[in-house]
Amino acid sequence: MLFILDFTSIRRKEQTNNSVDISSSAQVRAEIFETTLPAEFPHFLKCMLPSHVTWGFCLSFPKRFCVSHLPKHDGNIVLVDEDGDEFSTKYLIGKSGLSGGWRGFSIAHNLVENDVLVFQLIETCKFKVHILRENCLSPIDVAVVLMDFIVEAHNEDQNEKMNMCEANEDKYLEPHE
């Protein structure tokens, strides 16, 4: 029996999903961080590919996000980094993404392949950009790890905690005479 793989459907899925393998540390941390964002500010995740950070420097946004939240014409979009610094970029409706100015933002923030950015629309044509790095921890990463630790600690089985306390109490009991 002969099997033929259809890579076009796989490629199409990768293009629409705009994410990396779930095992990516930055992707997992970004998804956790995303749950902490206020619902009134639309947002999306974007995993950095070589074409975003080493050549080409064109960044496409999810088409559905653009249709729902961005202008129906080319224009400027401001990116605000975690320090409050603003970067002006050129939004191209035909590309559903950023062109001019994106290269400067990418280089200024030393973005590399597999870093994950969370774009949070805070005003019309203005995004707060949160960077979750694949190879090092940012303050956001540390906060996400701590949140996850707190949730895990809170969700521990209460009976197990009680058993541990009882076992410790037994250790320190004075012998009966």
TrEMBL record:
Top-rank lineage group of the source organism: Eukaryota
Cellular localization per UniProt: Nucleus
A GO molecular-function annotation: DNA binding
Gene Ontology cellular component terms for the protein in this record: nucleus
One Pfam family recorded for the sequence: B3
Entry's transmembrane regions: none
InterPro entries on file: B3_DNA-bd, DNA-bd_pseudobarrel_sf, REM16-like
Chief location category: nucleus
Alphabetized UniProt keyword annotations: DNA-binding, Nucleus, Transcription, Transcription regulation
TF-B3 domain location: 44-135
Family matches, as CDD domains: B3_DNA (cd10017)
Protein's UniProt keywords contain Metal-binding: no
PANTHER family from the UniProt entry: B3 DOMAIN-CONTAINING PROTEIN OS01G0234100, B3 DOMAIN-CONTAINING PROTEIN OS11G0197600-RELATED
Protein name: TF-B3 domain-containing protein
Organism: Solanum verrucosum
